[in-house]
Design goal:
Aspartate Aminotransferase, domain 1, about 40% helix, binds pyridoxal-5'-phosphate
Length: about 475
């Protein structure tokens, strides 16, 4: 076979036999730097796939001669290798208006947590080693003190996520026995977490009381039997029952439980550790309030309003937490050292609550003054207009953000951003034009994600600290739209 570069005349179609072998391709001088950088294993595999693809095109008679030139082959292979090595998990810009966005990784970690996490993962650490005593330690103790200090709990333990915390708490405290829960609180969270199914998985028998809209203390009282192990309250975090409603508060229910010797467990879902109302945000129940009301254990997420890593936090009475910690299932649900490091650093921020709206991204964005959001939107307006013209028109828009992740579903935060609409003679083609724009924004090096509403693509600037990350990508956007 002739050398690839001599084999065909530019402009004609290449034949299968014009393609080099894998060996021959990898010996091309142009490929030596790539081979040196990445090694033969990756390059051989990618070269084989590349050549297989080109061979199919050549057999079909549609492979351009130019594509089998040495330089073109080297370039194609380099591109494949770059693609193969590029991580699938990528940073994106969340301009959807949903601050704690489940599909976008929920809470963004504070810088202190990222730094601590990186330092702890770079070497061995005392995950389960007691540095004072010189013996085996318990990983829970790394965060238990902080959790107790912040919530006022006697004891605390942590697991992989809040779904695991709920499952574990029910299994450990009520496995094989009955759990009483109101029909108004049989919550389904996204991703197949449904309270009745969780109870069943935990091996507990769910006893429903009351109705969808109204449940009374007497309903619980009547249902308590010798086989009742737990009373359960579930915060209806992702929906609201309004109108003729009645629910039993934790304090009342805990008192009943104490009288009858049955502990109360509360699943808060989000569980803000500070009063959100101080920043004009809707009130969200806090674990410390639940404990003060007499709950035996409270479960909540690490990556919703708390603003840390994915984790399930269990706080409560020492004896109950101890049973949960000792339950064998705990071992399968335990938190790994990665989120544990991030959790410790995130919780430590709560020791300085005055700084939270600076230090914790989730709270910074939720509490962000409207004028600041609007300033970012204004800075983007003209450059974005220029980048998408003449096919699209951009306006400054008053928007409303959501907290997200099932938190406070009915509440909206006044926000600001940009609304982009296709310039078309009629409405025909609007959907296609918006799809094209959204796809172009997603194709950027740091994909920009907005939302479509009322025939416009909306870019909510609440979670964009500065305009730069979007401004820097406008030339690429212009190119993608061309
Ligand atoms: C979000 C939520 C959960 C699940 O928490 P994860 O951390 O997502 O596992 C459980 N219960 C309630 C009420 C929730 O809102």
């Amino acid at each position: 076979m002739p050398a690839p570069e001599e084999s065909v005349v530019h402009g004609s179609k290449a034949r299968p036999q014009d393609l080099p072998s894998v060996d021959k391709l990898l010996r091309l001088p142009a490929l030596q730097p790539l081979l040196e950088a990445h090694g033969a294993t990756l390059l051989t595999r990618e070269a084989r796939t590349l050549l297989d693809g080109l061979r199919q095109l050549a057999v079909a008679g549609v492979l351009d001669g130019a594509q089998v030139q040495a330089d073109a082959l080297a370039q194609a292979l380099a591109a494949r290798v770059g693609d193969r090595l590029a991580p699938r998990m990528r940073r994106v810009l969340n301009l959807t208006g949903t601050v704690i966005h489940t599909n976008l990784g929920r809470s963004v970690l504070p810088a202190a947590a990222v730094a601590h996490l990186a330092r702890m993962m770079e070497g061995p650490n005392n995950l389960e080693y007691d540095l004072a005593g010189g013996g085996r330690g318990d990983r829970d103790t790394l965060v238990e003190g902080l959790l107790c200090e912040i919530t006022g709990a006697e004891a605390a333990t942590v697991v992989n996520n809040n779904a695991a915390a709920v499952l574990l708490a029910i299994a450990a405290l009520a496995g094989g026995r009955e759990v009483i829960v109101s029909r108004g609180e049989l919550v389904e969270i996204g991703g197949a977490f449904r309270m009745p199914d969780v109870m069943a998985s935990a091996g507990a028998k769910m006893v429903e009381v009351g109705t969808t809209n109204r449940t009374h203390l007497a309903d619980y009282a009547r249902a308590i039997s010798a086989n009742t192990a737990l009373l359960m309250k579930v915060h209806t975090s992702n929906y609201a029952v309004q109108g003729f409603t009645s629910a039993v508060g934790e304090a009342e229910l805990a008192a009943l439980g104490r009288e009858r010797g049955v502990p109360l467990a509360t699943d808060l879902g989000s569980g803000a550790l500070v009063d959100m109302a101080q920043w004009g945000l809707p009130k969200e129940p806090m674990p410390q309030e639940m404990l003060a009301a007499g709950c035996g254990v409270v479960t909540f997420s690490g990556d919703k309003l708390l603003g840390g890593p994915q984790a399930g936090l269990i706080v409560g009475e020492r004896a109950l937490v101890q049973r949960i910690r000792k339950f064998p299932m705990k071992r399968t649900l335990r938190l790994s050292k990665l989120p544990l490091a991030a959790l410790e650093a995130t919780l430590a921020l709560y020791l300085q609550p005055e700084r939270l709206t600076q230090d914790l991204p989730t709270l910074r964005w939720l509490a962000r003054p409207l004028a600041e959001v609007e300033a970012v939107a204004r800075a983007l307006l003209e450059p974005l207009r220029a980048a998408v013209a003449p096919r699209y028109e951009v306006q400054l828009a008053a928007l409303s953000s959501q907290i997200g992740s099932g938190s406070l579903p009915v509440e909206r935060l006044p926000s600001s951003g940009l609304a982009i609409a296709p310039v078309l003679p009629g409405r025909r083609g609007t959907g296609t034009a918006l799809d094209a724009l959204a796809a172009a924004l997603r194709s950027l090096p740091e994909p920009v994600l907005g939302r479509v509403a009322d025939d416009r693509l909306l870019l909510d600037c609440r979670c964009l600290d500065t305009p730069e990350p979007v401004l820097a990508q406008l030339p690429a956007l212009q190119e993608a739209l061309a």
